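seq as requested:
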Amino acid sequence: MKAAEGFPSGLCAQHRAIEALLRQLDGVRTRGGTSDEEDLRLLAALRRLLLPHLAAEEEHLYPLARRYLPVGRALADAAGCTHASIRRLLDRAGDCRLSVTGRRRATAVLLLVLRTHLRGEEEQLFPALRARARPDELRRCERRLREPRAGPPGATGPAGPAIRGLPLGAGAITALRDRLTGHDSSGQHSP
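struct tokens:
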């Protein structure tokens, strides 16, 4: 299994980037007097990283869990429900119709659910897959997670489930790379 030891390094790198944004959101919440604009900016950045990440897991990681883990089907179904909850919480946290207090409460719940989900994947799911899945399947999954995928001509932003004709998670790695380097896909610097 030595060849697959790093699996899923692509997802772990995405987790680190997501966690960095969660820490920034924590900082905004603990400072208290910061602008609501900063909260919304960080939530928008989290959305850009998180939605393609969740889609990539649904497309590549959880089918692997279904095939190789004894409780993989139940685990994948539960993860799908958790992902849906995370998406709803992300929408609620960024809902400008709510009061600042309401959005901050939604953000606090989002951070808790998201951290619990990420920790569960890293501490339980990833080791279980490394132990049970075939090394060639793990390598294939890792390659698929790393493949940059371009959206259709004229599309903006990371390709994902909202763009018809593309598989879920398309562009997740590109979006992560762009966010970490501060550039968008067109090579322009993003704020």
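The mean pLDDT is 78.
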